[in-house]
Amino acid sequence: MKLMRGGYQIEQRGFIETFFMRLGLAAMVIYTLPNVGRMADLTEQSRPSGLAHFIDLTFLADPTLYQAGYWLTVVALIAYVLGLAVPISLGIATVFHILVMTLYNSQGSQTHQFQIISLALLAQWIVYLVGFFRRKKLPFTHSLSNTAIHFSVQAIAAVYVIAGVIKMLRSKGMWAWQSPDIAVELMKTNAQKYYEYLEVDASFDHRLRVATWLIENPWHARIALGGGLMIELFAFLALYNRTAALIVGFAMLALHWGIEITMGLDFKNNSAMIWIFLINVPFWILWLSGKIAKRDGALDLKRSADFPWKPESRS
Asked: Are 153 and 239 in contact (CB under 8 A)?
């Protein structure tokens, strides 16, 4: 396992690294798909989102149909992990996940926690589709597998860059300066929770303390929250090489940790995707074990050079 020397190139990945990335993505798809009982309640799409503006997706609420699609997706994901008929198997998983999550997101309360998974799936599927339909004139100088994973990393980075750009556009470049105003949002959340349940939420006091700190320490708030904005805007640096991806990945995890302890928002799906594609633990374990083995081999050679003689055997 070698680190890439140049930057912003498609990494050459070994079997083990690729297998665990595929396995991790497949696990996230299965983990995020709702159970059949939850889908049975989605018999309407009151506030259409995405494809739901053009397609009535409520047919997925049929328990028999959903169960069939779910298990077909599981089989397809197993084939994808094993590298079997990837354009087809990955396509089944991608289409089913996007349609189900679109219906889920069309109930009047949208969430962004599944989008990063669907985007990673879609990015890989597009690469394999292009490779399939242009077999004779393959536009990629690298293997489809390496290119597909590279595009998944791009999709993940794009999620954060777009979030940062939107913050800058909507605030007219003043987001970091205005960031202490998030205290108002925290107090609005407290009020909403109270009037919804007519009781003090368990995290009421925590949000109140955070809001008070933001108001009393505006410059500290600007530095901390502005740092998070920089992580989003420069997330594309993860594409430089594996080392950059590792550093950016841990920075993103720190960003999510900060958001969780201040705002109480959970980004477990995003964090899991960061672990799978950016931090990439299997590669670093293999890389480190290779370094250790190389060092031990060098020490053995050195000992042999220092002591070239062999003890004489005694009869």
From this structure: yes
